[in-house]
């Protein structure tokens, strides 16, 4: 079953020059394709929509500040089981728990700055794609 997912390469990935490496890993996955891609700095309004379910949690403000601290690369990736696959490719949020070969396992340093976001379900993917790429049906 073909799916779409939103991926964000976070400010730390951009700052550290890892965009090409991460995009290459996504592009080399057979059957996946990047259907939208944009480099942008996120404003608070977009971040509040994206992280709405986390309002009030202790990590919310530091997360919003981090995500607004520099440009991100936002992309839509389509393909077979792409939601599950991209989350596996990203690895767990904690880079110490992330397996070698995953993006966070190979390049992650701390939990808060964890390089990549990938939607966690079809519902999240559709909601997030509408936030970041409203013109992409």
TrEMBL record:
InterPro entries: NDK-like_dom, NDK-like_dom_sf, Nucleoside_diP_kinase, Nucleoside_diP_kinase_AS. Its cofactor is Mg(2+). ATP binds at residues 10, 59, 87, 93, 104, 114. GO terms for cellular component: cytoplasm. Gene3D superfamilies: Nucleoside diphosphate kinase-like domain (3.30.70.141). The keyword Chloroplast does not apply. GO terms for molecular function: ATP binding; metal ion binding; nucleoside diphosphate kinase activity. It is found in: Cytoplasm. Residues 2-136 form the Nucleoside diphosphate kinase-like domain. Its EC number is 2.7.4.6. One of its GO terms (biological process) is GTP biosynthetic process. SUPFAM superfamilies: Nucleoside diphosphate kinase, NDK. The active site is at residue 117. It comes from the Bacteria. It catalyses: a ribonucleoside 5'-diphosphate + ATP = a ribonucleoside 5'-triphosphate + ADP; a 2'-deoxyribonucleoside 5'-diphosphate + ATP = a 2'-deoxyribonucleoside 5'-triphosphate + ADP. The keyword Translocase does not apply. Keywords: ATP-binding, Cytoplasm, Kinase, Magnesium, Metal-binding, Nucleotide metabolism, Nucleotide-binding, Phosphoprotein, Transferase. Major role in the synthesis of nucleoside triphosphates other than ATP. The ATP gamma phosphate is transferred to the NDP beta phosphate via a ping-pong mechanism, using a phosphorylated active-site intermediate. Belongs to the NDK family. Homotetramer. This is Nucleoside diphosphate kinase. It comes from Actinacidiphila glaucinigra.
């Amino acid at each position: 079953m073909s799916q779409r997912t939103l991926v964000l390469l976070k400010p730390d990935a951009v700052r550290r020059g890892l965009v090409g490496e991460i995009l290459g890993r996504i592009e080399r996955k057979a059957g996946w394709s990047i259907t939208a891609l944009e480099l942008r700095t996120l404003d608070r309004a977009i971040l509040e929509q994206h992280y709405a379910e986390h309002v009030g949690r202790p990590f919310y403000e530091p997360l919003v500040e981090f995500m607004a601290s520099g440009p991100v690369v936002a992309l839509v990736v389509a393909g077979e089981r792409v939601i599950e696959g991209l989350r596996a490719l990203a690895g767990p949020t904690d880079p110490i728990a992330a397996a070698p070969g995953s993006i966070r396992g190979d390049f992650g340093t701390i939990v808060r700055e964890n390089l990549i976001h990938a939607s966690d379900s079809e519902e999240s993917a559709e909601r997030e794609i509408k936030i970041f790429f409203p013109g992409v049906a």
